[in-house]
Predict the 3D structure of the following.
Amino acid sequence: MSASTAATETTPRAAKIGLGLAGLAVVGVSIAGGLVAGLVVLLALLGTPLFAVMGGSAEILWLLHPDVAYHHLRFIAATVLDERFADSPIVVTIPLFTFVGYVLAEAKTPDRLVKAARTVLGWMPGGLAIVCVIASAVFTVLTGGSGVTIIAIGGLLYPALRKQGYSDKFALGLVTTGGSVGLLLPMSLPLLVYALIAHVDFTELFKAVLVPGMLVIVLLSIYSAVVGAREKVERDPPELRTMLAAIWDLKWELGIPSILAVGLGTGLTSIDEAAGLTAFYVVVIEFFVYRDLSWKKDLVRIAKASMSLAGAIILILSMANALMNYVVDQHIPTKVLEFMLKVGIEHKWQFLIVMNVFLLLLGMLMEGFSAILVAVPLILPFVADLGNRHPDEKMSPFQLAMIFLLNLEIAYCTPPLGLNLFISSFRFNRPVSSLYKVVLPFVGILVAALVVVSYVPWVSNVAVAADMARIRAKAEKESTPPRDAWMMECVQEDPANPQPCSIEDRTKYPGGQLATSPTPGVAGGGTDQDNPDLPPDTGCNPDFNDCSDAGKK
Protein backbone atom coordinates (compact mmCIF):
# COMPACT_ATOMS: atom_id res chain seq x y z
CA MET A 1 0.00 0.00 0.00
CA SER A 2 1.42 3.42 -0.96
CA ALA A 3 1.77 6.30 1.45
CA SER A 4 -0.87 8.31 -0.42
CA THR A 5 -3.36 5.44 -0.25
CA ALA A 6 -2.70 5.01 3.47
CA ALA A 7 -3.22 8.71 4.01
CA THR A 8 -6.54 8.58 2.13
CA GLU A 9 -7.81 5.73 4.31
CA THR A 10 -6.53 6.87 7.70
CA THR A 11 -6.93 10.64 7.60
CA PRO A 12 -10.75 10.56 7.83
CA ARG A 13 -10.49 8.53 11.03
CA ALA A 14 -8.19 11.11 12.63
CA ALA A 15 -10.49 13.86 11.39
CA LYS A 16 -13.51 12.14 12.94
CA ILE A 17 -11.72 11.86 16.28
CA GLY A 18 -10.82 15.52 16.15
CA LEU A 19 -14.33 16.59 15.18
CA GLY A 20 -15.79 14.42 17.92
CA LEU A 21 -13.59 16.00 20.60
CA ALA A 22 -14.35 19.46 19.23
CA GLY A 23 -18.08 18.74 19.31
CA LEU A 24 -17.88 17.55 22.91
CA ALA A 25 -15.98 20.70 23.83
CA VAL A 26 -18.66 22.93 22.26
CA VAL A 27 -21.50 21.04 23.96
CA GLY A 28 -19.74 21.05 27.34
CA VAL A 29 -19.01 24.77 27.18
CA SER A 30 -22.58 25.51 26.07
CA ILE A 31 -24.00 23.60 29.03
CA ALA A 32 -21.62 25.17 31.54
CA GLY A 33 -21.41 28.71 30.20
CA GLY A 34 -24.46 29.25 27.99
CA LEU A 35 -25.10 29.55 24.28
CA VAL A 36 -22.88 32.60 23.84
CA ALA A 37 -19.88 30.74 25.29
CA GLY A 38 -20.65 27.71 23.14
CA LEU A 39 -20.89 29.88 20.02
CA VAL A 40 -17.52 31.51 20.81
CA VAL A 41 -15.82 28.11 21.18
CA LEU A 42 -17.45 26.90 17.94
CA LEU A 43 -16.18 29.94 16.04
CA ALA A 44 -12.69 29.38 17.43
CA LEU A 45 -12.68 25.73 16.37
CA LEU A 46 -13.91 26.70 12.89
CA GLY A 47 -10.83 28.83 12.40
CA THR A 48 -12.00 32.33 13.28
CA PRO A 49 -8.94 34.47 14.07
CA LEU A 50 -8.22 34.28 17.77
CA PHE A 51 -7.99 38.06 18.25
CA ALA A 52 -11.47 38.40 16.73
CA VAL A 53 -12.84 35.69 19.01
CA MET A 54 -11.38 37.28 22.13
CA GLY A 55 -12.11 40.89 21.20
CA GLY A 56 -15.63 40.06 20.01
CA SER A 57 -16.29 38.05 23.16
CA ALA A 58 -15.18 41.01 25.29
CA GLU A 59 -17.53 43.35 23.43
CA ILE A 60 -20.51 40.99 23.67
CA LEU A 61 -19.93 40.28 27.36
CA TRP A 62 -19.72 43.96 28.28
CA LEU A 63 -22.87 44.69 26.27
CA LEU A 64 -24.64 41.90 28.18
CA HIS A 65 -23.31 43.11 31.57
CA PRO A 66 -26.03 43.09 34.29
CA ASP A 67 -25.30 46.76 35.02
CA VAL A 68 -26.48 49.04 32.20
CA ALA A 69 -23.73 51.52 33.08
CA TYR A 70 -21.18 49.06 31.69
CA HIS A 71 -22.80 48.78 28.25
CA HIS A 72 -19.93 50.62 26.56
CA LEU A 73 -17.18 49.23 24.35
CA ARG A 74 -14.59 51.42 26.06
CA PHE A 75 -14.36 48.89 28.88
CA ILE A 76 -12.52 46.39 26.69
CA ALA A 77 -9.45 48.68 26.69
CA ALA A 78 -9.11 49.08 30.45
CA THR A 79 -6.28 46.56 30.81
CA VAL A 80 -4.82 46.97 27.32
CA LEU A 81 -3.57 50.49 27.83
CA ASP A 82 -2.37 50.26 31.43
CA GLU A 83 1.29 50.19 32.38
CA ARG A 84 1.39 46.44 33.04
CA PHE A 85 0.73 45.76 29.33
CA ALA A 86 1.35 48.84 27.19
CA ASP A 87 4.55 49.74 29.05
CA SER A 88 5.85 46.19 29.35
CA PRO A 89 9.26 45.67 27.69
CA ILE A 90 8.07 42.27 26.52
CA VAL A 91 5.70 43.94 24.03
CA VAL A 92 8.82 45.32 22.32
CA THR A 93 10.86 42.18 22.82
CA ILE A 94 8.43 39.83 21.05
CA PRO A 95 8.70 41.43 17.56
CA LEU A 96 12.47 41.80 17.87
CA PHE A 97 13.03 38.14 18.74
CA THR A 98 10.53 37.08 16.07
CA PHE A 99 12.56 39.03 13.50
CA VAL A 100 15.79 37.40 14.74
CA GLY A 101 14.22 33.96 14.38
CA TYR A 102 13.05 34.61 10.82
CA VAL A 103 16.47 35.88 9.75
CA LEU A 104 18.26 32.85 11.22
CA ALA A 105 15.77 30.44 9.68
CA GLU A 106 16.22 31.98 6.20
CA ALA A 107 20.02 32.02 6.47
CA LYS A 108 22.31 28.99 6.63
CA THR A 109 22.37 28.95 10.42
CA PRO A 110 20.56 25.56 10.65
CA ASP A 111 23.27 23.99 8.46
CA ARG A 112 26.10 25.43 10.53
CA LEU A 113 24.38 24.53 13.80
CA VAL A 114 23.82 20.91 12.79
CA LYS A 115 27.34 20.57 11.38
CA ALA A 116 28.98 21.90 14.54
CA ALA A 117 26.83 19.79 16.86
CA ARG A 118 27.45 16.67 14.78
CA THR A 119 31.22 17.04 14.73
CA VAL A 120 31.34 17.63 18.49
CA LEU A 121 28.85 14.93 19.56
CA GLY A 122 28.78 12.52 16.63
CA TRP A 123 31.35 10.16 18.20
CA MET A 124 29.07 9.39 21.19
CA PRO A 125 26.53 6.53 21.27
CA GLY A 126 23.44 8.01 19.67
CA GLY A 127 25.52 11.06 18.82
CA LEU A 128 23.55 12.22 15.78
CA ALA A 129 20.26 11.75 17.65
CA ILE A 130 21.60 13.83 20.56
CA VAL A 131 22.59 16.45 17.98
CA CYS A 132 18.97 16.49 16.83
CA VAL A 133 17.72 17.03 20.39
CA ILE A 134 20.11 19.89 21.13
CA ALA A 135 19.89 21.56 17.72
CA SER A 136 16.09 21.40 17.79
CA ALA A 137 15.97 22.89 21.29
CA VAL A 138 18.33 25.75 20.43
CA PHE A 139 16.63 26.51 17.13
CA THR A 140 13.19 26.58 18.74
CA VAL A 141 14.45 29.23 21.15
CA LEU A 142 15.89 31.27 18.28
CA THR A 143 12.80 31.05 16.07
CA GLY A 144 10.07 30.89 18.71
CA GLY A 145 8.13 28.06 17.08
CA SER A 146 8.33 24.28 17.04
CA GLY A 147 6.88 24.12 13.52
CA VAL A 148 9.79 26.03 12.00
CA THR A 149 12.20 23.73 13.84
CA ILE A 150 10.58 20.57 12.46
CA ILE A 151 10.75 21.94 8.92
CA ALA A 152 14.30 23.35 9.16
CA ILE A 153 16.21 21.09 11.58
CA GLY A 154 14.02 18.02 11.04
CA GLY A 155 14.33 18.37 7.29
CA LEU A 156 18.11 18.39 7.61
CA LEU A 157 18.50 15.61 10.16
CA TYR A 158 15.80 13.07 9.27
CA PRO A 159 17.59 11.84 6.11
CA ALA A 160 20.92 11.97 7.96
CA LEU A 161 19.51 9.84 10.80
CA ARG A 162 18.14 7.27 8.34
CA LYS A 163 21.40 7.21 6.38
CA GLN A 164 23.43 6.56 9.53
CA GLY A 165 21.26 3.56 10.43
CA TYR A 166 18.57 4.75 12.81
CA SER A 167 15.18 3.13 12.35
CA ASP A 168 12.48 5.10 10.56
CA LYS A 169 10.26 4.87 13.65
CA PHE A 170 12.85 6.42 15.95
CA ALA A 171 13.97 9.08 13.47
CA LEU A 172 10.42 10.27 12.80
CA GLY A 173 9.54 10.32 16.48
CA LEU A 174 12.69 12.27 17.33
CA VAL A 175 12.30 15.04 14.74
CA THR A 176 8.58 15.34 15.51
CA THR A 177 9.18 15.72 19.25
CA GLY A 178 12.38 17.78 19.10
CA GLY A 179 10.57 20.89 17.92
CA SER A 180 8.88 21.41 21.29
CA VAL A 181 11.91 20.94 23.56
CA GLY A 182 13.07 24.54 23.24
CA LEU A 183 9.99 25.90 25.05
CA LEU A 184 11.78 25.12 28.32
CA LEU A 185 14.85 27.23 27.66
CA PRO A 186 15.61 30.90 28.38
CA MET A 187 14.33 33.52 25.91
CA SER A 188 11.67 31.29 24.33
CA LEU A 189 8.64 33.33 23.24
CA PRO A 190 6.11 31.25 25.22
CA LEU A 191 8.23 31.86 28.33
CA LEU A 192 8.14 35.61 27.69
CA VAL A 193 4.37 35.60 27.19
CA TYR A 194 3.89 33.57 30.36
CA ALA A 195 6.00 36.06 32.33
CA LEU A 196 3.87 38.93 31.00
CA ILE A 197 0.53 37.30 31.81
CA ALA A 198 1.53 35.87 35.21
CA HIS A 199 3.48 38.98 36.36
CA VAL A 200 6.66 36.98 36.93
CA ASP A 201 10.09 38.59 36.76
CA PHE A 202 11.37 37.37 33.40
CA THR A 203 15.07 37.52 34.33
CA GLU A 204 14.46 35.23 37.30
CA LEU A 205 12.26 33.01 35.15
CA PHE A 206 15.10 32.65 32.63
CA LYS A 207 17.33 31.38 35.44
CA ALA A 208 14.70 29.05 36.88
CA VAL A 209 14.01 27.35 33.54
CA LEU A 210 17.62 26.22 33.07
CA VAL A 211 17.45 23.12 35.31
CA PRO A 212 14.05 21.79 34.08
CA GLY A 213 15.09 22.49 30.49
CA MET A 214 18.36 20.62 30.91
CA LEU A 215 16.47 17.79 32.62
CA VAL A 216 14.32 17.27 29.51
CA ILE A 217 17.31 17.48 27.17
CA VAL A 218 19.33 15.01 29.28
CA LEU A 219 16.48 12.50 29.47
CA LEU A 220 15.94 12.61 25.70
CA SER A 221 19.69 12.37 25.11
CA ILE A 222 19.99 9.30 27.35
CA TYR A 223 17.15 7.62 25.45
CA SER A 224 18.85 8.52 22.16
CA ALA A 225 22.13 7.01 23.35
CA VAL A 226 20.33 3.81 24.42
CA VAL A 227 18.63 3.51 21.03
CA GLY A 228 21.87 4.25 19.21
CA ALA A 229 23.66 1.48 21.11
CA ARG A 230 20.74 -0.95 20.71
CA GLU A 231 20.45 -0.39 16.97
CA LYS A 232 24.27 -0.50 16.61
CA VAL A 233 24.40 2.78 14.77
CA GLU A 234 27.78 3.77 13.38
CA ARG A 235 29.49 6.72 15.01
CA ASP A 236 31.45 9.52 13.44
CA PRO A 237 35.15 9.32 14.38
CA PRO A 238 36.25 12.15 16.65
CA GLU A 239 38.57 14.58 14.88
CA LEU A 240 39.73 17.59 16.83
CA ARG A 241 40.58 19.62 13.74
CA THR A 242 37.12 19.04 12.25
CA MET A 243 35.46 19.93 15.54
CA LEU A 244 37.36 23.18 15.83
CA ALA A 245 36.66 24.08 12.21
CA ALA A 246 32.92 23.47 12.60
CA ILE A 247 32.77 25.51 15.79
CA TRP A 248 34.75 28.27 14.11
CA ASP A 249 32.16 28.37 11.31
CA LEU A 250 29.51 28.94 13.97
CA LYS A 251 31.49 31.60 15.84
CA TRP A 252 29.32 34.54 14.85
CA GLU A 253 26.07 32.82 15.90
CA LEU A 254 27.65 32.02 19.26
CA GLY A 255 27.74 35.76 19.84
CA ILE A 256 23.93 35.83 20.13
CA PRO A 257 23.67 34.05 23.51
CA SER A 258 26.80 35.92 24.61
CA ILE A 259 25.14 39.31 24.02
CA LEU A 260 22.04 38.21 25.92
CA ALA A 261 23.98 36.66 28.80
CA VAL A 262 26.31 39.63 29.27
CA GLY A 263 23.62 42.26 28.84
CA LEU A 264 21.04 40.70 31.15
CA GLY A 265 23.48 39.10 33.56
CA THR A 266 25.34 42.31 34.28
CA GLY A 267 22.28 44.54 34.21
CA LEU A 268 23.77 46.74 31.49
CA THR A 269 20.69 46.23 29.32
CA SER A 270 17.02 45.56 29.90
CA ILE A 271 15.30 42.73 28.05
CA ASP A 272 14.05 44.96 25.21
CA GLU A 273 17.45 46.65 24.83
CA ALA A 274 19.16 43.25 24.70
CA ALA A 275 16.66 42.13 22.06
CA GLY A 276 17.39 45.26 20.00
CA LEU A 277 21.14 44.66 20.19
CA THR A 278 20.63 41.03 19.20
CA ALA A 279 18.47 41.97 16.20
CA PHE A 280 21.08 44.49 15.01
CA TYR A 281 23.88 41.94 15.52
CA VAL A 282 22.03 39.24 13.56
CA VAL A 283 21.41 41.62 10.64
CA VAL A 284 25.10 42.48 10.53
CA ILE A 285 26.41 38.91 10.61
CA GLU A 286 23.85 37.35 8.24
CA PHE A 287 23.64 40.16 5.66
CA PHE A 288 27.18 41.55 5.74
CA VAL A 289 29.52 38.96 7.32
CA TYR A 290 28.22 35.58 6.15
CA ARG A 291 26.24 37.19 3.31
CA ASP A 292 23.76 34.35 3.38
CA LEU A 293 21.06 36.92 2.62
CA SER A 294 20.84 40.01 0.46
CA TRP A 295 19.88 43.21 2.25
CA LYS A 296 18.34 44.52 -0.98
CA LYS A 297 16.23 41.46 -1.78
CA ASP A 298 15.62 39.76 1.57
CA LEU A 299 15.67 42.30 4.40
CA VAL A 300 12.33 43.98 3.72
CA ARG A 301 10.66 40.67 2.83
CA ILE A 302 11.81 38.99 6.06
CA ALA A 303 10.90 42.05 8.14
CA LYS A 304 7.36 42.07 6.68
CA ALA A 305 6.87 38.35 7.32
CA SER A 306 8.20 38.48 10.88
CA MET A 307 6.22 41.60 11.80
CA SER A 308 3.04 39.97 10.51
CA LEU A 309 3.52 37.16 13.04
CA ALA A 310 4.67 39.50 15.83
CA GLY A 311 1.74 41.84 15.18
CA ALA A 312 -0.66 38.92 15.36
CA ILE A 313 0.82 37.82 18.69
CA ILE A 314 0.59 41.31 20.21
CA LEU A 315 -2.95 41.79 18.88
CA ILE A 316 -3.98 38.49 20.46
CA LEU A 317 -2.32 39.53 23.72
CA SER A 318 -4.16 42.86 23.78
CA MET A 319 -7.55 41.29 23.05
CA ALA A 320 -6.87 38.65 25.69
CA ASN A 321 -6.22 41.43 28.21
CA ALA A 322 -9.48 43.05 27.18
CA LEU A 323 -11.32 39.78 27.77
CA MET A 324 -9.56 39.28 31.11
CA ASN A 325 -10.86 42.68 32.19
CA TYR A 326 -14.38 41.26 32.09
CA VAL A 327 -13.29 37.97 33.66
CA VAL A 328 -11.81 39.83 36.65
CA ASP A 329 -14.83 42.13 36.95
CA GLN A 330 -17.19 39.15 37.18
CA HIS A 331 -14.91 37.24 39.60
CA ILE A 332 -14.87 34.24 37.28
CA PRO A 333 -11.60 32.82 38.70
CA THR A 334 -13.19 32.95 42.16
CA LYS A 335 -16.25 31.08 40.88
CA VAL A 336 -14.02 28.43 39.29
CA LEU A 337 -12.14 28.15 42.58
CA GLU A 338 -15.36 27.70 44.54
CA PHE A 339 -16.51 25.01 42.12
CA MET A 340 -13.23 23.09 42.44
CA LEU A 341 -13.47 23.24 46.22
CA LYS A 342 -17.04 21.94 46.12
CA VAL A 343 -16.00 18.88 44.13
CA GLY A 344 -13.31 18.12 46.72
CA ILE A 345 -10.12 19.41 45.05
CA GLU A 346 -8.33 21.08 47.94
CA HIS A 347 -4.87 19.52 48.13
CA LYS A 348 -1.83 20.01 45.94
CA TRP A 349 -1.63 16.46 44.61
CA GLN A 350 -5.29 16.55 43.58
CA PHE A 351 -4.87 19.92 41.92
CA LEU A 352 -1.74 18.83 40.03
CA ILE A 353 -3.54 15.86 38.50
CA VAL A 354 -6.54 17.95 37.41
CA MET A 355 -4.37 20.82 36.15
CA ASN A 356 -2.09 18.57 34.10
CA VAL A 357 -5.04 16.86 32.40
CA PHE A 358 -6.72 20.22 31.77
CA LEU A 359 -3.57 21.78 30.31
CA LEU A 360 -2.89 18.74 28.16
CA LEU A 361 -6.35 18.88 26.60
CA LEU A 362 -6.18 22.65 26.21
CA GLY A 363 -2.76 22.45 24.57
CA MET A 364 -4.04 19.96 22.00
CA LEU A 365 -7.04 22.15 21.12
CA MET A 366 -5.24 25.52 21.08
CA GLU A 367 -1.84 26.79 20.02
CA GLY A 368 0.63 27.69 22.75
CA PHE A 369 0.07 31.43 23.10
CA SER A 370 -3.70 30.99 23.20
CA ALA A 371 -3.45 28.29 25.85
CA ILE A 372 -1.30 30.55 28.03
CA LEU A 373 -3.71 33.47 27.66
CA VAL A 374 -6.76 31.37 28.47
CA ALA A 375 -5.47 29.12 31.24
CA VAL A 376 -3.03 31.20 33.29
CA PRO A 377 -5.58 33.72 34.66
CA LEU A 378 -7.84 30.83 35.68
CA ILE A 379 -5.12 28.75 37.35
CA LEU A 380 -3.28 31.45 39.30
CA PRO A 381 -6.07 32.24 41.82
CA PHE A 382 -6.52 28.59 42.71
CA VAL A 383 -2.78 28.04 43.23
CA ALA A 384 -2.63 31.17 45.40
CA ASP A 385 -5.61 30.03 47.48
CA LEU A 386 -4.09 26.56 47.85
CA GLY A 387 -0.96 28.11 49.32
CA ASN A 388 -3.01 30.31 51.66
CA ARG A 389 -4.99 27.36 53.05
CA HIS A 390 -2.08 24.92 53.14
CA PRO A 391 1.24 26.77 53.49
CA ASP A 392 3.12 23.48 53.36
CA GLU A 393 1.63 22.86 49.90
CA LYS A 394 2.50 26.24 48.39
CA MET A 395 3.83 26.38 44.85
CA SER A 396 6.34 28.89 43.56
CA PRO A 397 5.52 30.83 40.36
CA PHE A 398 8.57 29.22 38.76
CA GLN A 399 7.36 25.70 39.42
CA LEU A 400 3.92 26.56 38.05
CA ALA A 401 5.52 28.02 34.91
CA MET A 402 7.61 24.87 34.37
CA ILE A 403 4.55 22.64 34.79
CA PHE A 404 2.61 24.78 32.36
CA LEU A 405 5.27 24.83 29.64
CA LEU A 406 6.02 21.12 30.00
CA ASN A 407 2.34 20.44 29.46
CA LEU A 408 2.51 22.48 26.27
CA GLU A 409 5.51 20.44 25.10
CA ILE A 410 3.60 17.23 25.74
CA ALA A 411 0.40 18.53 24.14
CA TYR A 412 2.25 19.46 20.93
CA CYS A 413 3.28 15.81 20.48
CA THR A 414 0.30 13.91 21.91
CA PRO A 415 -2.10 12.03 19.58
CA PRO A 416 -4.52 12.66 18.06
CA LEU A 417 -4.45 16.47 17.86
CA GLY A 418 -0.87 17.46 18.73
CA LEU A 419 0.23 20.34 16.47
CA ASN A 420 3.67 18.82 15.79
CA LEU A 421 2.06 15.68 14.44
CA PHE A 422 0.32 17.59 11.67
CA ILE A 423 3.42 19.64 10.83
CA SER A 424 5.59 16.53 10.68
CA SER A 425 2.96 14.73 8.61
CA PHE A 426 3.05 17.58 6.08
CA ARG A 427 6.85 17.88 6.07
CA PHE A 428 7.63 14.18 5.65
CA ASN A 429 4.53 13.23 3.64
CA ARG A 430 3.25 10.70 6.16
CA PRO A 431 -0.29 10.00 7.39
CA VAL A 432 -0.93 11.66 10.73
CA SER A 433 -2.11 8.40 12.24
CA SER A 434 1.21 6.73 11.33
CA LEU A 435 2.96 9.13 13.74
CA TYR A 436 0.82 8.28 16.76
CA LYS A 437 2.81 5.22 17.78
CA VAL A 438 6.29 6.58 16.98
CA VAL A 439 5.98 9.61 19.29
CA LEU A 440 4.72 7.66 22.32
CA PRO A 441 8.19 6.82 23.77
CA PHE A 442 9.16 10.49 23.57
CA VAL A 443 5.86 11.60 25.08
CA GLY A 444 6.50 9.11 27.90
CA ILE A 445 9.89 10.75 28.60
CA LEU A 446 8.29 14.21 28.69
CA VAL A 447 5.63 12.90 31.07
CA ALA A 448 8.35 11.51 33.34
CA ALA A 449 9.99 14.97 33.37
CA LEU A 450 6.60 16.52 34.16
CA VAL A 451 6.16 14.21 37.15
CA VAL A 452 9.60 15.19 38.46
CA VAL A 453 8.92 18.90 38.02
CA SER A 454 5.44 18.63 39.55
CA TYR A 455 6.45 16.77 42.70
CA VAL A 456 10.03 17.95 43.24
CA PRO A 457 9.88 21.76 43.64
CA TRP A 458 13.66 21.91 44.05
CA VAL A 459 14.10 21.37 40.28
CA SER A 460 12.27 24.59 39.45
CA ASN A 461 13.56 26.69 42.35
CA VAL A 462 17.22 25.75 42.76
CA ALA A 463 18.53 28.22 40.18
CA VAL A 464 16.84 31.18 41.91
CA ALA A 465 17.32 30.04 45.54
CA ALA A 466 20.40 32.24 45.96
CA ASP A 467 18.47 35.27 44.72
CA MET A 468 15.65 34.55 47.19
CA ALA A 469 18.15 34.33 50.04
CA ARG A 470 19.87 37.55 48.95
CA ILE A 471 16.57 39.44 48.80
CA ARG A 472 15.58 38.12 52.24
CA ALA A 473 18.92 39.15 53.72
CA LYS A 474 18.58 42.65 52.28
CA ALA A 475 15.05 43.03 53.69
CA GLU A 476 16.21 41.75 57.07
CA LYS A 477 19.05 44.27 57.10
CA GLU A 478 16.65 47.08 56.24
CA SER A 479 14.03 45.85 58.74
CA THR A 480 11.34 45.62 56.05
CA PRO A 481 9.06 42.73 55.01
CA PRO A 482 10.70 40.63 52.25
CA ARG A 483 7.87 41.20 49.76
CA ASP A 484 10.07 40.59 46.70
CA ALA A 485 11.08 37.23 48.16
CA TRP A 486 7.42 36.31 48.74
CA MET A 487 6.73 37.04 45.07
CA MET A 488 9.32 34.38 44.22
CA GLU A 489 8.44 31.84 46.91
CA CYS A 490 4.72 31.36 46.22
CA VAL A 491 2.04 32.36 43.73
CA GLN A 492 0.37 35.55 44.95
CA GLU A 493 -3.32 36.30 44.73
CA ASP A 494 -2.57 40.01 44.35
CA PRO A 495 0.92 40.74 42.92
CA ALA A 496 0.53 44.38 43.98
CA ASN A 497 0.20 43.30 47.63
CA PRO A 498 2.33 40.18 48.20
CA GLN A 499 1.66 38.19 51.37
CA PRO A 500 3.87 35.80 53.41
CA CYS A 501 4.17 32.26 52.14
CA SER A 502 5.34 30.27 55.17
CA ILE A 503 3.80 29.86 58.62
CA GLU A 504 6.91 31.45 60.16
CA ASP A 505 6.61 34.53 57.97
CA ARG A 506 2.89 34.82 58.65
CA THR A 507 3.65 34.92 62.35
CA LYS A 508 6.48 37.40 61.92
CA TYR A 509 4.70 39.57 59.34
CA PRO A 510 0.95 39.45 60.03
CA GLY A 511 -0.93 40.89 57.06
CA GLY A 512 2.37 41.37 55.30
CA GLN A 513 3.63 43.90 57.86
CA LEU A 514 6.23 43.75 60.61
CA ALA A 515 4.62 42.52 63.83
CA THR A 516 6.73 45.02 65.79
CA SER A 517 5.85 48.01 63.60
CA PRO A 518 5.44 51.19 65.63
CA THR A 519 1.82 52.11 66.26
CA PRO A 520 0.99 55.69 65.26
CA GLY A 521 0.43 57.93 68.27
CA VAL A 522 2.41 55.77 70.67
CA ALA A 523 5.50 57.53 71.94
CA GLY A 524 8.78 55.68 71.52
CA GLY A 525 7.39 53.34 68.86
CA GLY A 526 5.95 50.87 71.39
CA THR A 527 2.82 48.73 71.04
CA ASP A 528 -0.64 49.56 72.26
CA GLN A 529 -0.07 47.43 75.33
CA ASP A 530 2.86 49.67 76.33
CA ASN A 531 0.33 52.45 77.10
CA PRO A 532 -2.28 51.45 79.70
CA ASP A 533 -4.53 54.35 78.68
CA LEU A 534 -5.14 52.80 75.24
CA PRO A 535 -7.66 50.01 74.61
CA PRO A 536 -6.25 46.55 73.87
CA ASP A 537 -5.23 45.84 70.28
CA THR A 538 -8.01 43.81 68.62
CA GLY A 539 -6.27 43.55 65.28
CA CYS A 540 -8.90 45.73 63.57
CA ASN A 541 -8.59 49.11 61.94
CA PRO A 542 -11.19 51.52 63.41
CA ASP A 543 -11.43 53.27 60.04
CA PHE A 544 -13.11 50.16 58.65
CA ASN A 545 -15.24 49.23 61.67
CA ASP A 546 -14.93 45.52 61.02
CA CYS A 547 -12.60 42.60 61.68
CA SER A 548 -12.55 41.15 58.18
CA ASP A 549 -9.37 40.86 56.13
CA ALA A 550 -10.04 44.34 54.77
CA GLY A 551 -10.26 45.72 58.29
CA LYS A 552 -7.10 44.13 59.65
CA LYS A 553 -4.06 46.28 60.09
